[in-house]
Task: structure prediction
Amino acid sequence: METDKVQVVVIGGGATGTGILRDLALRGIPAVLVEQGDLAHGTSSRFHGLLHSGARYAVKDKEAARECIEENMILRRIAPNCVELTGGLFVQLPEDDPQYADRWITACAEAGINCEEIDVQELIKKNPVLSPNVTRAFKVPDCAVDGFRILWGNVNSARRYGARVLTYHRVSAIHQSNGRVTGVELINQLNGQKRSVECEMVINAAGPWGGEVAAMAGLEVNVIKDKGTLVAYNHRLMSMVVNRLRPPGDGDIFVPHGTITILGTTSTTVDNPGCTKPGHNEVLELIKIGQEMVPELESYRLIRAFAGVRPLYQENSAAGGRSVTRNFALLDHRQRDGLAGMVSIVGGKFTTFRLMAEKTVDLVASQLGVNAPCRTAREPLTAPVSEELLERGKKVFGVPGAKKAAERLGDSFAQVVEQAEKNPDKGRIFCECEVVSLAEIEHAAHSGDSFTLGDIRRKTRMGMGTCQGTFCSYRILGALSGYPQFAGNHREYLTKFLQKRWKGMRPVLWGQQLREAQLSTGIYCTLFAMERMR
Amino acid sequence: MNKYTDVLIIGAGLSGLMAAAKAAELGKKVTLVAKGMGAVGLSSGCIDLWGYNLEDPNQVCQDPLAEIARLCAVNPQHPYARVQDVLEESLLFFRRVCQENGNPYLDHRGGNWLLPTALGTLRPTYLAPASMAVGDLQQVRGVLVVGFRELKDFYPDVLAANLKKSGVLQADCPLNTLMVCAGGGELTPNTLAHRLENPAVVDRIVDQIKPHLLPGAVLLLPPVLGERWDSQVAKNLAEKLGHPVYEVANIPPALPGQRLQQMLLHHVKGQGVEVVIGCTVNGARVADKRCTEVLATGAGKPIKISAKTVILATGSFLGGGLESKPGKAWESIFRLPVEIGHEKWSARDFLSMAGHLFNQMGIKVNEHLRPVDKTGEVIIENVMVTGANLAGCNHPIEKCGNGVAVASGYKAGKLAGEVGE
Result:
């Protein structure tokens, strides 16, 4: 069995885990991040992509609200290519309690969140999809954020400072001796090989799996697994994030991202942290509530539904769902349970991932005797793409292709442009819906972290658009058949990819998406007879 | 604008074009209107009749006509049970039309062809255009898969790897791949097909392939060998190489389906059928169980069309013939009922061997292809329903979509032709 040695092991490749990895790396603490699947396969890519201003939490949870607005401002600064400065709205409908609005205005002011009342008539004129019944509307500094890009920004930055990442490695045991963690045992999920890593500290940042990870060290951490279902529309329905001005509930957030809009979310407690099946009834319920703000919602084309599991933390386990705080908790197991060398970071939300990482690494650094201060709030996550490079990109990928690729790739854009300049065939667009070139796909395939078409999808967004991979998945399989990890197992790779996409399409199979499904079965069953492929 | 016609066909897919061809042959005044180009252009271009054995759905069916006869006995709700009387006749008619137009379709001694696809899978089909009709792969002494550098939708290595896995070739059969260049740049299947109509380009391809030819090898190429239905590109390439050359089925856009569609359009126009593409039918007037008028829009102008017979060849959800909302589905022009059953519309597995209910959803008809309600009562007397609109056909799994389209289109055309003055 292969044995490794490192100072800190971070468990979990979501926003928090990668944020911690970056923070450790910037402070010069050698670390390895271990992740059971691909990076961002869990909660960090399964949310509405809202960078909260904090206004949503202002009334109920002032501390969370204050953290949100501070982190919101930091992320805009350090990761401009991951944040779309849409601005946000809170709209009140006649059925909403008017007194809540007044409490909310005061609470926002106390939390330091700018909120400005705007003229309703003007608003409806600019955003005609909104209900004409809106009674009051306020502007807040909400934004849209790309979870994938943030994660990759964290990882790339951490790697530059020497950190390592092991994806598809599941922790199977946490070793301890004399009340101290001594290391972890890992199983490679792709080939079953075992591997152990000796370390001084383990950071449990496993999100919804946090309770399971803690249990491996014999600890009890009560993570409430709260499933939220969301839907993606094939239109940019509005130019700003739109929230409902009432206590947080289901189906009350619309977030525009590029050409699509995400509507979320629901809240259901589940047992399995991997339960990401979007429910058909939850989808219908979401749309029904969403219609109160956007009356014509039924006539817009849905692309898919998806679900993520929020890891909510409650020290004692009575509450669930929306009544549990969205705040995070840092558990020092030395103090709490008498096990040195292990901390768990639980709860929280995407917007505050950096702060969670900072607090966690502050604790870990102090236990390791490292004095270096946190630098993640100041140091840019990715260097901006220069105008000159963008112009070069436009020549090889076309204008929309270059813009999208530059946003997705950040620091790596230069390499991808170079590849396409050297070999013009690589400038070809393979995923037409999301305008992804062969050069970008090969870049993702080369990264060393890509083992499935799904891994490439998460890195490039290929297959995430209107056709949901019907055309590009087959094409990309062909283009990558020269790579050892993709050669020879076409049926399995393609089936897995198509099945994952299918899971998201099934709950929204009506209207245009049912047509798309007929085309898709027409190609893979009628034409390719893939259901009987050997 | 007002139009009067004997037979109005809505939809330019395979069943609509078949109906038009037959009704015109019987001397009727026929008008065909369609919103778009019809799904036959997206299809393989082959006529799948029935792919697998009823008892063992993994076993390729050796006698599709006999199997369909058995099917009709065990599943009288299948659309084939409504068109069984004309099935063979419709296939003969189809082949005659193809032959006359210089695009012969071949059968495989009454059984199924087993044709390779671009993915390297094998698909059973009953009639194939000559350019696709690869004989028994078990017998071949070598295969060379040739791709074009200009094309991003065809990968010889993928085809070869999976064809090998399929086990259809003899163990020692050489299987090689080759990429050739047809002049560079990025081309779509259509622009490549256009370029290949130039004999000089074909000569350059021949030069690139020749050094790689092994004795007895069969060549498999993407479906781009020629634009028109009577194109000689595949034939010329084969003659110049001295080896058989075939196109394999691939994702759209692919030429064989488009050629079939263009050929049938050309044919029906030659038969005097008035064809209006880009014409959307929005609704219809029905009085006394008869459709008196169809309301359409073409080039931004309203058109009213009266016809003795209306044939609804509008192509299921994909073609826009059926529409849906959560828990509801209906036919879009006449609001004919679409039974949705109590089950889920789709299976959990995308590639489920049971298929998906949404592909079987459609309009119930009687033996005259008239739409009927739950009790079997005809809803509109002078409307007939064809092709993918018919309920009860699990075509992606059964491999029978184009077969049902040929037979039901033909039957509707024939019945419309029998309607008196």
Summary: Chain B has two domains: 2-99+259-418, 135-247.
